[in-house]
Prior knowledge:
Chain A is α+β, with helices and mostly antiparallel strands. Chain A has one domain (2-223). Helix content of chain A is 29%, strand content 34%. Chain A has helices spanning 2-17, 48-55, 68-84, 117-124, 153-159, 163-166, 207-212; strands at residues 23-30, 36-43, 59-60, 63-64, 88-96, 101-108, 132-138, 143-149, 173-180, 184-187, 193-194, 200-206, 219-223. In chain A, the strands form three sheets. A seven-stranded mixed β-sheet of chain A has the order 5-6-2-1-9-12-11. In chain A, strands 7-8-13-10 form a four-stranded antiparallel β-sheet. A two-stranded antiparallel sheet of chain A has the order 3-4. Chain A is globular and about 55 Å long. The N and C termini of chain A lie far apart (46 Å). The model of chain A is unreliable at 1-19 (pLDDT under 50). Chain B is an alpha+beta fold. Chain B is built from 20 helices and 22 strands. Chain B has a 20-stranded antiparallel β-sheet, sandwiched between helices. In chain B, strands 8-9 form a two-stranded antiparallel sheet. In chain B, helix 12 (336-350) packs antiparallel against helix 13 (356-369). The longest helix of chain B is centred in the middle third of the chain and has 21 residues, at 192-212. The chains are: A alpha+beta, B alpha+beta. The A-B interface holds A 23, 25, 27, 43, 45-46, 48-50, 52-53, 55-56, 96-99, 101, 163-164, 167, 177, 179, 195-197, 199-202 and B 395, 397-400, 402, 404-408, 415, 417, 419, 459-463, 522, 524-525.
Amino acid sequence: MLKNYITKLILLVVLLSLTSCFEIIEEVNLNKDGSGDFVLTINLSQSKSKITSIMLLDSINGHKVPSREGIQQGMIEVVNYLKKSKGIYNVTKKEDYENYVFSVQCSFKNINSINNLTKEVLGKQKVKIQSYNTYEYDVSNKEFTKEYNYDSQLLKQYNKLPVDTKKVFENASYTGIYRFNEQIQSVSNTKAKVSKSKKAAMLRVNAIDLINGHTKLNTKIQLAK
Amino acid sequence: MNKYYLLAIALLGVMYINAQDLAYKIPKEANAVASLKGENLIELIPIQEFDKTKVGKEILREATRNRDRQQSVADLGLDISSTGYYFYQITDSIRYHCALMPINDVQKFEKLLRRGKVVEEDGVKIRYKEYSKESVIAWNDKMVLSITGEIIESYFTDDKVRELYNLPERKKGEEGEEELGKYLRDDIFEKWEQKEEITFHYVRNKAYHILNTPITNKQSILANREYVKTIDKKAEASIWVSDFMKIYSDVMKGKMSRYYSSFLYAGMDQAKYERQQFSGHVYAEKDELKMKATYHLDKKMASRMKKVYGNSLNKKFLKYINEDEILGYASYVIDTKGFLTEYPKMMKNNLGGLFETEADIITELLSIVLDEKAISKVIKGDALFLMYDLSDKEVTYKSYKYDDDFKQKEVEKTRTETIPDFLLLLSSSDTGILKKLLKLGEEKGVSSYKDGVYTLKHRELPTELYVSIDQGVIAVGTTLERIKGLDTSTKNVSQKHRKILRKNSGSIYINTKEVLEIAKKFERSKRKKRTLDYIINDIEDIQLTNGKVRNNKMTAELKMKLPEGHKNGLKYLMTLIENLDK
């Protein structure tokens, strides 16, 4: 099973190896009652020329290049999966094949409903990784928690990559944005920034640091009581 | 001693004093002969120098493993000053792979041999391994022969042959089972040992025959006029194949009989080919390294190929070339009409007797459906691909900006991307349909037209493409200036390249130094950068040409001029190998 996951991860990496960089943006808008909206965006726009070139090929380095129809089908599957998931509604998707920006948006009644969502979404796109996020919001204590589970396999696989392929990750980034109705009192993760209005926190990290396990996405945000 | 290693010595080793040429030991019926000429090579690199090279040291190390260490490859007992031969022979029952080399000191040679059983008969010694009897090494005082046999299984389906070799009668296969003839193929040899013993019997007899039986000149390959005609004394290494298609179909049959049906197997036999020879030579001359390959076509094939490759590259293409700026080019010239009329015939020929009526119908149908003449007006069949430098281009991409409340706003940013800068040229005497297609593109928003140049922009294209149609030349490229700026005063192409492009049916040129300079920019490893630096300073341009059909022959040549400071091609190669390995 693990071998299968690794193969899929390598496939993703091979594909991304010909892109020069990418960004993943995760946005959570949380209401007072613990309900809210979640948006996951994968922006490959900076590498659109290279992706366009890859898409003209049938396969690259022995791996099949997904067709546009294949990606569309994958996105439909993601949406259908989310629609069937308990506590999730208003599911929408955006696909921009000119800039290669893809996003999935949904609303939730309780933030627990989106736990493992990133993992499942990537899984539907045939990429399975063991690193995943879990969220929790304690309504009475007004405490938002994000736990990030790091998988050391990520680093092992990364180290096996050729030097040139590793270069792809140098400029890649992960951004997490958490917006609230109330002001933020404290944020546990020192790398997170708090907005001027104190109603939003942003955590932007380099993909390399995430792969190395040097940066943790774990964050505890205490809202004003 | 490893049989492959002996083969390598026979083909790679070489040197010293003129000795007997063993070609007279090669049977006239040999299907392929390869040779490495020792005396030519020692002229290029003396044996004492060769011993000091990496290749020389490697040969010595491998040859004297677990034995007394020798100081020179001349001390191995092999007469490496004469020509080493490899030949391949197919009979109805077996395929032989043989390597022949003279011996000048049999005692020294015998010391090289490792474990194995040795049998002796009439002054010929044969060494074999119990577990691998299909390969033997046979020698006498004068020469050594390494020989490997491959049984042709179909021969052993005949009842009389089976009786002769004490093979049991075969069981009939069930209907629909994988079979050869009417029998299951697993029944040919019940045990692996049977096959091995029969192969051993064949290779041992062959070895005795070659080493001990006097072969008259009439029976040797030297009586084969076609082989003799291809001999080039100046070449350092040569190969000759008597019937290229026979070997090809023999190899295919070997594979097919195992994996495909006997139906296709039968078809290969019926392909209507006449004998087509192939010869190739390698030259390590004072000023260049050269490889030359020649296809000797049969008359019918030659006349077809003449129709396909009869044209020359459009002269107008030359004014688009700026030799100082190109990284390389590739040209190809066919006659579209000749291709469309001759290709179906060649395919039909390849099928042999199979689907004869169907092939006739398809050929006729193609001729009716395709108007060869009209198509050849639209696409004449010549093309020139010019690779210029990699150029930087500003491209836009989507990103996000965040306000004080981290609210996201989509913004357009720009970045510089490196894209290949190329120009593709095609000839056409009827550009009407292309113009109509580009017009349609305009209506669909894919192309636009300005100042005589069409711009193609589509999300499925990695970059914008520019197209111009001028005096029957269709130019497609990535740089507007190159498409538009056809200022002949700034373009130049040397007489050498003019000749190559115009006189050949295909050519490839690589400005090696420039290409490697670019590769260096993308290389991150310091070691690889150092290697690239070395090669850049010690390499010249590479040129491949594919000539037109002349005297029923097609010749391809690969050439590289030697950089300054090297006495000859062989010394250059030895130095290159050593430096690349550092």
